Amino acid sequence: MSKFLLSLLSLLTLLIAACAPADKPKFTYTDITGAAFARELTLSDHHGKPRTLADFKGKVVIVSFGFTHCPDVCPTTLATFAGVKQALAEKGKDLQVLFVTVDPERDTEALLRQYVPAFDPSFLGLRGSLAQTKSAADEFKVVYQKSAGASPSTYTVDHSTQSYVFDRQGRVRLLLPHQAPVAKITADLQQLLQVR
User: Fold this and answer.
1) Residues 6-17: b if buried by 16+ CB within 10 A, e if exposed
2) Of 29, 81, 87, 116, which is most buried by a Cβ count within 10 Å?
3) What is the pLDDT of residue 23?
């Protein structure tokens, strides 16, 4: 190959690299930026205050669905997010975790107020009526269904286990799987926290 063609090829490579978006983050977990779901959430927090995603603009937000009587997935998920917040150190103040109950019949404000902040005082439990819960779950493509227990009050709720991450502008960005390790979630969130 002639020197001229090598120089031209090098120049074209540089031009292509210059045109590519340099600030597009490379996430470990599924990038769902621009998704046509998980765009809104309107429920009350465990203090009875009406909340929407817009209330948390300026923070990176994780939304997770579950219920307080969950024997494994939900406490594990919330403990993981508490670990992420701790790993973020000073930047952790800009992380908000929202836990949406899919069992509003048992998960009262008082129970959510006791359960959710036990993982981290800043975490908020959200709840609504049965219709509001279904609407929120549908918007986030979360499925859930009661599963009978030994008695009517000991039922469980089978539910989707993914969580959603929103950037500081309130846009959904990431889909986190259950059992994602603290270090990998932290690395992805650090990228979102860098952008104001």
Assistant:
1) eeeeeeeeeeee
2) 116
3) 60
Map tokens 């036990």 to a residue. 118
73-87 and 182-194 helices, crossing angle to 10°: 50
DSSP 43: E
For the four alpha carbons of 44, 40, 76 and 104, in that order, the dihedral sign comes to positive
**CA 174, CA 6: separation in Å to the nearest integer?**
40
Q: In which region does residue 34 sit, left (phi positive, over 0), alpha (psi from -120 to 50) or beta (all else)?
A: left
pLDDT digits (tens, 9 = 90+) for 171-193: 999 999 999 999 999 999 999 99
42-45 and 124-127 strand pairing: antiparallel
Mean pLDDT of all residues in the chain?
89
Number of H helices, E strands in the chain: 5, 10
* 58, 170 contact by CB (below 8 A): no
Residue the block writes with tokens 């819960």: 133
Tokens 């969950």 found at: 70
Query: Is 188 in contact with 98 (CB distance < 8 Å)?
Result: no
Average pLDDT for 31-44: 96
How far apart, in whole angstroms, are the C-alpha atoms of residue 92 and residue 189?
Answer: 10
Cα 2 from Cα 195, distance rounded (Å) = 44
Using alpha carbons only, what angle is made at residue 44 by residues 118 and 121, rounded to the nearest 5 degrees?
20
